[in-house]
Amino acid sequence: MADYTTVFETLKGFLPMNILEKAINETGTEHGTKKFTVLRQLNTMMYAHLTGKTSLRDIEAGIVADKKLQEHTGTISFSQISRVNSDRDTDVFKMIFEATLAKLKKHHGIRIVPGSWDILKALDSTIVRLCIVLFPWADYRDKTAAVKVHTLYDVLLGCPENIVVTEGIIHDKEKMKTFVTEPGVTYLYDRAYIDYKEYDRYCKEGIFFISRLKKNAIIQVLNENAVVKGSTVLSDREVILGCISTKMQHPVRIIQVIDSSNGELFHIVTNRFDLTAEEIAEIYRLRWTIEIFFKWIKQHLTIKKFFGTSFNAVLNQIYSALILFCLLKLMHILVGTKHDFLKMVRLITNGLWNTVPQLKEDLVPKKPPPVQRQKRFNWKQEYETVLR
């Protein structure tokens, strides 16, 4: 029977149903619900993300036209989808996302970085601009509304670990304490998160960080370490950051690096003294993976266009996108990580009711048929044949 299970049903099968039922019971979100359950809502949202739907009416039309899809979503109107997205407790989708992420962590394979680098997590945010008339609560600028998705990204897993959605006006640094909590973990972030008091707390509590430093930072050099000649690292110094009012208690390292792609000089600050300067520079480059993740979900999932205008609807749509992203990662492990992830997603999008074996077959590059060479014309032989 497994060979006849469709791709969409396989994605559904990865969902942690025990946690879903627990979330429903704890929040009571299905009280009085007869038709559009949490599972059907999630199936509807996953379908919308996969097929790139841009409106509720478009989702409704897609469900009406697909009898197979109705087995998973039921027949539902656009107004019912809108009402449920706005009213249903967001904690349900949050708990499902966290459980799906935990499931993905159990199935994750080989490390892609040296074990001596330990656990790496990137912290950043992405802005989604909105119409200020439709989203007046999403403060950002005078004539523009926006939401900001603050994200903690597991670099080794290639997946977001935690998010906080706020109005666009909220500064990134205000959410540092929410994410940077685990001793022994190395957090990667850019200049928007610089805070000397927090750096001191990290040093005291055994939390590691690697960040880019502003050019106008005030430093007191304690020691200068040797660097490898010919590498992109120009200097490696142990310093104390800050002036009288903001002076740090603990020493840190400042590594000057030249960007090989554009020749730009920049400084990296860290409290990791166990790694070489070259390793620190290599780890900081991994921070770019969170930027790639933001770009990917905006291009291939429905994040830039929201189906509802309330904060609840926005948050439910973002959580459903992250749940789907984790499920697609699990599917990628099932079909084989040697295959291209984006190609797999495109094949799923265009073949929701194909089977998994068929998906695997489609992922294998087809060999072109052998070129049949035409036989060379031998005019002498043909001439002799005609004469005979």
Find the count of extended strands (DSSP E, 2+ residues): 9
User: Strand-residue fraction?
Assistant: 15-25%
Count of runs of 4 or more consecutive helical residues: 15
Overall form: flat
Radius of gyration: 27 Å
For the sheet with most strands, the description reads: 9 strands, mixed
Report strand order across the widest sheet: 3-2-1-4-5-9-8-7-6
Separation of the first and last Cα atoms:
68 Å
* Low-pLDDT residue spans: none
Helix content: 40-55%
Average pLDDT over all residues: 89
Task: Give, in order, the helices and strands.
Answer: HHHHHHHEEEHEHEEEEEHHHHHH
- Helix-strand category: alpha+beta
Task: Describe it.
The protein contains 15 helices and 9 strands. By secondary structure, it is α+β, with helices and mostly antiparallel strands. Strands 3-2-1-4-5-9-8-7-6 form a 9-stranded mixed beta sheet, with helices on both faces. A hairpin with a 4-residue loop joins β2 and β3 (159-167). The longest helix is centred in the last third of the chain and has 25 residues, at 311-335. The radius of gyration is 27 Å and the shape is flat.
